[in-house]
From TrEMBL:
Catalytic activity: UDP-alpha-D-glucose + 2 NAD(+) + H2O = UDP-alpha-D-glucuronate + 2 NADH + 3 H(+)
Protein name per the record: UDP-glucose 6-dehydrogenase
Top EC class for this record: oxidoreductase
Family in the record: Belongs to the UDP-glucose/GDP-mannose dehydrogenase family.
Source species taxonomy: Bacteria, Bacillati, Bacillota, Bacilli, Bacillales
Keywords of the record: NAD, Oxidoreductase
Natural source organism: Tumebacillus lipolyticus
EC numbers on record: 1.1.1.22
Domain called UDP-glucose/GDP-mannose dehydrogenase C-terminal: residue spans: 316-417
MF terms in GO: oxidoreductase activity
Superkingdom field: Bacteria
């Protein structure tokens, strides 16, 4: 099939590569000329495991191209995916201006029946808005051209986007015509998974509901971690015991310093906003947000109790990105932690395999090191902020020699506390009473 994907961020680029690898002819469209040139030369402007290599071979084969020429892409495609950003506005609602502009342009160039598919995360009811914009554009032109609007949300994790796109747990297709349903089924025939057909509004809600539920699991376990420290229970053991119940499941029950990234914080805010708008306040999600916002400060309080006042101390942060395997620092707990540490007079050094450049722009006072050991040099305490695999496997005797103090504070419950204590460190993590 001939497909265009409008917007080439990590969702768009991944969609381009997966559809092209399934045998479709794909055009990726972006307004940014430099980005398009970069993509056409097989290079990605961001880091995503395995994607650059796959994209390079698809471009060479000729099944994938990138362009800024949206009208041409519209004319040449049967299916048009919308994968532009829907950032948060100050009131928490999703900014739909990029979607609306792309749809207006599609309307100006629609020449025969096509399916317009929203993959961006959009509030419930956006499908109707897309339809209304297309109809208005066609009316302006004085033409009647049939089209269908479909919602096909993505559930891709950053860093694992290609894997998730090729092996999804489900493909959700929200559509309201047999023709669109048949075309979407044909498009995904190479993917072996459950195909769930729903209304457009159901599909739009499924995306928000899924992300909000995962965020809820994390905040639940993080709040419980605070209680476990008082009761002398271990949150890791409690979560393991809970997760073995197949009705609960083991995933997204890892306590830590809170969730970040481009999806959870934004989507939870957008769903709360939608609830308010509809007169249904989502109290549980208000609590999810508030627990998440207070988790990093709660952890720093714990650090300060352990090591004493921050003023004049040297604190080394291992990891800055919101999770391993990405260069993304959006809403990363590290940012709030740096701000709080500096406010309280600490000197902050850091190392991250991918995120240092972006953090440097926001917090130029942080001393960025060339490796983990460089960040640790002379530190009173080391905070594990992002559980990059290389931090789990450090030469701890070397770390011990290079530190001034002996505290390792594990914000991701990823290190072996017993081993560290045996090597002479003082160790504390999230949701365990035992420190030192
Ligand atoms: C998420 C969803 O998983 C994905 O389906 C959706 O399409 C986009 O949002 P992503 O933001 O890439 O993906 O990362 P994810 O791996 O889900 O982690 C999100 C955040 O939650 C990270 O900050 C991570 O550290 C944190 N997290 C995750 C926990 O704190 N505990 C956990 O148990 C799991």
């Amino acid at each position: 099939m001939h497909v265009s994907v409008i917007g080439t961020g990590y969702v768009g680029a991944t969609t381009c590569a997966t559809l092209a690898s399934m045998g479709h002819r794909v055009i990726g469209v972006d307004v940014d000329q430099q980005k398009v040139a970069m993509l056409n030369s097989g290079r990605l402007p961001f880091y995503e495991e395995g994607l650059e290599a796959l994209m390079g071979s698809l471009i060479t084969q000729g099944s994938l191209t990138f362009t800024t020429d949206l009208p041409k892409a519209v004319t040449e495609s049967e299916i048009l995916f919308l994968t532009v950003g829907t950032p948060s506005q100050s009131d928490g609602s999703a900014d739909l201006s990029y979607i609306e502009e792309a749809v207006r342009q599609i309307g100006r160039h629609l020449d025969r029946y096509k399916v317009v598919v929203s993959k961006s995360t959009v509030p419930v009811g956006t499908g109707d808005r897309v339809r209304a914009i297309l109809e208005a554009e066609l009316a302006k032109r004085g033409v009647v051209i049939p089209f269908d609007v479909v919602s096909n949300p993505e559930f891709l994790r950053e860093g694992k986007a290609l894997h998730d796109a090729l092996h999804p747990d489900r493909v959700v297709i929200g559509c309201e015509s047999d023709k669109a349903r048949a075309m979407m089924t044909e498009l995904y025939q190479g993917v072996r998974t459950v195909m769930l057909y729903t209304s457009v509004r159901d599909a739009e809600m499924i995306k928000y509901a899924s992300n909000a539920f995962l965020a809820l699991k994390i905040s639940f376990v993080n709040e419980l971690a605070r209680l476990c420290e008082k009761t002398g229970s271990s949150i890791s053991k409690v979560a393991r015991g809970m997760g073995l119940d197949s009705r609960i499941g083991p995933q997204f029950l890892r306590a830590g310093i809170g969730y970040g990234g481009s999806c959870f914080p934004k989507d939870v805010r957008a769903l709360i906003h939608l609830g308010k708008q509809q007169g249904v306040p989502l109290q549980l999600l208000d609590a999810v947000t508030s627990i998440n916002q207070t988790q990093a400060p709660w952890f720093l309080q714990k650090v300060e109790t352990a090591i004493g006042p921050f003023s004049g101390k040297r604190i080394a942060l291992l990891g800055l990105t919101f999770k391993p395997g990405t260069d993304d620092i959006r809403e990363a707990p590290a940012l709030a932690m740096i701000e709080m540490l500096q406010e309280r007079g600490a000197e902050v050094s850091a190392f991250d395999p991918q995120g240092m450049e972006a953090v440097r722009q926001i917090h130029p006072q942080v001393k960025m090191a060339t490796d983990a050991y460089g960040a640790i040099d002379g530190a009173d305490a080391v905070l594990l902020v992002t559980e990059w695999p290389e931090f789990l496997d450090l030469d701890w005797s070397k770390v011990r020699k290079r530190m001034r103090g002996r505290w390792i504070l594990d914000g991701r419950n990823a290190l072996d506390g017993d081993k560290l204590r045996a090597s002479g460190f003082a160790y504390a993590c999230v949701g365990e009473r035992r420190s030192e």
